[in-house]
Amino acid sequence: MVRNSRVQRRSVKATEEDVELQDVDVDAKVYMACILQGRRIGVAYYDVDTRQMFVLETWEDGNEQFPSVQLIKYQVKPDIIFTSTKMDDTFLAALKLKVGFDHAAVEHAEVHEVRVLRSSVFTYQQARHRLAYLWITGMDEDFTDKERLHLLNSFMNLDSEMQVRAAGGLLAVLQQKMLVGASDVEEYKMTPVQIESISELSLNGFLNIDAATHDALQIFQVDKHASSMGIGKEKEGFSVFGLLNKCVTLMGRKLLRLWFLRPILDLDILNDRLDTISVLQCSQEFLKDLQESLKHIRDIPQLLKKISSPSSRTTTKDWLMFSESVGALINIRAMFQVALSQRQQSQLPLSDLQIVRKILSSINEELVYIKNLVTGVIDFDKTSGEHTAPRIVHGICDELDELKNLHEGLPDFLDKINLLSQLSNKLHLSFVFFDTDSSVIIAGYLLRFGVRLHENVLECLPDFQLAFEGGCEDGFFYRTSKTRELDEVIGDIFHKVLDMEQAVLRELEKRLGEFSSTLRQAANVAAEVDCLTALSIVAHEQKYVRPVLTEDNILVISNGRHPLQECTVNTFVPNDAHITQKGRVCVVSGPNYSGKSIYLKQVALIVFLAHIGSFVPAEKAIVGLTDRIFTRIASKETMAVSQSSFMIDLHQIAIMLRHATSKSLCLIDEFGKGTLTTDGVGLLCSTLKQFADWELPPKVLACTHFSEVFNPKFLPKSENLAFYTMSILEPDDGQQSSGSIDDIVFLYRLVLGHAVPSYGKHCDNTRPEAAGVAPQILVRANEILELMTETKNIERLDSQQTAAKDQRYKTFTEKLLFWDDDKGDTHGFLSQVFSHSS
Ligand SMILES: Nc1ncnc2c1ncn2[C@@H]1O[C@H](COP(=O)(O)OP(=O)(O)OP(=O)(O)O)[C@@H](O)[C@H]1O
Predict the structure, then answer these.
(1) Computed over its alpha carbons, how large is the radius of gyration of the chain?
(2) Ligand 1 center to residue 597 CA distance, Å?
(3) How far, in Å, is the centroid of ligand 1 from the Cα of 601?
């Protein structure tokens, strides 16, 4: 019954969409859907031949050609791309662009079609609904909705909104064309076509990191505003981004965020960034000066948008910021020119750096012209306030100058007339001028009398006409032939001046529009300089070193540190990592609190930072290019599918096993502890075995408390497996442990070998105490542990209450034994016994 109603609901939706989807009359090999929201891009594509669907969520950097989209198109080669009606023209143009890496390739590139579908096809709810009822090979017919959703979640992350929306939109088209079936519609069940698999697409050229990994590694951390309701701006909390973000411009911050979101694999670009940091960090003085100049650069693209928009009015402040920004750009160029002339002899010439070339070519003479143009037109001295309309300098237009002179002399002129008129007829009258800004909507010159003119007087003055009375200048205001004459001769000078100034401003804005691409390019270069300056400052302050990036599939770190953790402890113990051909699956054991998780994360963070082009917290690091970092670290509630913590863990492992390649880095932190120990051991050992069986496994770092992993019956020996432990100092063998925290010294040092699993009681005695666990619980835990180790019976725990009860029962039993029914008083005996027991 329930099932039928669902079929009905679905059919209604299908007909609504059919209105538009009917038009999809193409026969293609590769169908793709691509949508954009803010800077997030969602992509899904389906290959008809292999019946595989791929999804991807990525970020764009604001470049109008959308390079990631072009890269995906180049990789996927779609015949048709579907997108939503809500996409803007720039994005549509980017989707339509033919792709190829040189002119000849573009010439010969296949033309693909771009079709726009109603935006509702791409809503998250509809998309998720469609995905939820999708038939994928391997799905059992008996699967419940929940089971199907769980399986789907192991194929793709249902929390990634954009990829879900793109996939849903694409499915609408595919279902319309009967290319794929849905599990809840009978007629589709007849169609044997199913999707073979759904996978997350790895974007060639990028180190792919999902949100869970960002979270686990604390790459970003947003703190809500401190106000109780969380209202207000969010700010970056204690995170790797927060640590490295020493940018001083908004554009720099945005770009650095993008570098963090999309670490790259291009060795040329990465090495160039590293070269730049090497050079810059040598001169702290230069870095300081550079940041001083950068601070004056505002969000140039935003200012340009305001300047070129016909609907928004610019203020003096906008022009001041614009002029200062251009001035600062010119200053930065000058600083590099001076540095270039001084550093010719140095080992790494500045002129070899890409960023220096960009500065010299993008911040060119045109910017000097722009700066002169703006300061030559806008009168920054003559403004009445930052938020008022800008004024124009003298000397731009003769007519405007004349009017301005007249307007400036107007108060004197009116005073003279007033004086004359008062002298001539001794009446309290004056010439006043109202403009439209005044509370009275009247423009022009009026004659003011302190009293209303009598009708007899007005009869003698036929050209006098009462305009109005009162107003802010108390009195009676008349138009006369003389005031009309004044209107005609000098008129509304103020507004004429404003109009003419606006016209000059529009001309200036138009002129600047011609240089908008130069300005944008210069702004992009400034953002890059800001990011590199920030990374150089951090590299110097935190004593990071330059990593060696290599195509070889290895990872060698000497004395690596955790960038965040080292800021929070007095002495941080550095550790090595050595992953080359053998022993790529590293199992790290050790007691609680011995530094296992920190070690895993620090290795991943060093790899991550190297792919941004940053120096890394280590003494030496050779980092092989990595395609993805996977994590099974802290379980986090997910909104897309209601899952238990253990289910989330399983999904993370499933995604890892499905998508990892030899070039991936996988972090597994205590997988299997969220279920029965036996099940957990089984799952962990089989996962590690699966990786160890590869010819060249991914680089795996797994930490665990399960001692079974050392038993070859559970985890067969393999040269791909390597065992490490976090060393601790225990009391000498002969010495009796008091079981206190002081007995163990955590050395936080990774060494080869196994951890003998006798740490339990030490750990139980140490950290839980620190975490506020009551001492009696710890004592009892120790007792149980010891009895279990010695395979003895665990006796009942005696308390005062149980002892009192025991005593009562004992007394009762004794009395019962000595009682003789023939001799005694039965009634008295019973009342005595029951009064005791009650
Ligand atoms: N290399 C190090 N140098 C100094 N202190 C460290 C180091 N590594 C870890 N620590 C300290 O030890 C604490 C615990 O580390 P971590 O969480 O990695 O332990 P763990 O072995 O993973 O514990 P558990 O098994 O309980 O998860 C950290 O919060 C930090 O204060």
Answers:
(1) 39
(2) 6
(3) 11
- Say what percent of the chain tops pLDDT 70: 77
286: helix, coil or strand?
helix
Distance, CA of 358 to CA of 535 (rounded, Å): 18
d(CA 418, ligand 1 centre) in Å: 87
* C-beta 573 within 6 A of ligand 1: yes
Handedness of CA 164, 167, 173, 179 (dihedral sign): negative
What are the beta bridge partners of residue 624? Answer: 550
CA 544 to centroid of chain Cα atoms: 24
Distances (CA, A) of 402 to 417, 500, 770, 779, 780: 21, 12, 82, 96, 98
C-alpha distances out from residue 516 to 320, 358, 509, Å: 17, 17, 10
Q: Which atom of ligand 1 is nearest to the CA of 594?
A: 21
From atom 15 of ligand 1, which residue's Cα is the shortest distance away?
Answer: 595
Q: Provide the token pair at 389.
A: 């309309």
Atom of ligand 1 nearest to the CA of 575: 1
In angstroms, what is the span from residue 726 Cα to ligand 1's centroid? 10
Average of per-residue pLDDT values in the chain: 80
Strands (DSSP E) along 482-591, which ranges? 548-550, 555-560, 575-579, 585-589
Q: Do the bridges between strand 52-59 and strand 40-47 make them parallel or antiparallel, or are there none, so unpaired? A: antiparallel
Ligand 1 in contact with 383 (CB < 6 A)?
no
Hey, what are 460's tokens?
A: 């003698």
* ipTM score assigned to the predicted complex: 0.98
- Is the predicted pLDDT of residue 696 greater than 80, yes or no? yes
CB distance 748 to ligand 1 below 6 Å: yes
Cβ of 598 less than 6 Å from ligand 1: yes
163-190: pLDDT as tens digits: 999 999 998 888 877 665 554 444 444 4
Considering only CA atoms, which residue is closest to atom 16 of ligand 1? 595
In this prediction, residue 728 has a pLDDT band, given cuts at 50, 70 and 90, of: confident
Please identify, by atom number, the ligand 1 atom nearest to the C-alpha of residue 763. 26
Cα–ligand 1 centroid distance for 598 (angstroms): 6
Report which of residues 137 and 41 the model is more confident about: 41
Please tell me if the CB atom of residue 559 comes closer than 6 angstroms to any atom of ligand 1.
Answer: no
For residue 568, which atom of ligand 1 is closest to its CA? 31
Report the atom number in ligand 1 closest to the C-alpha of 705. 25
3-state secondary structure of 815: helix
As beta bridge partners, residue 182 has: 134
Q: How far apart are CA 371 and CA 366, in angstroms?
A: 9
Cβ of 7 below 6 Å from ligand 1: no
In this prediction, residue 438 carries a pLDDT of 45
E strand segments, 210-296: 222-223, 235-236
Q: What pTM did the predictor assign?
A: 0.74
In terms of pLDDT, which residue wins out, 22 or 333?
333
596-607 pLDDT, tens digit each: 999 999 999 999
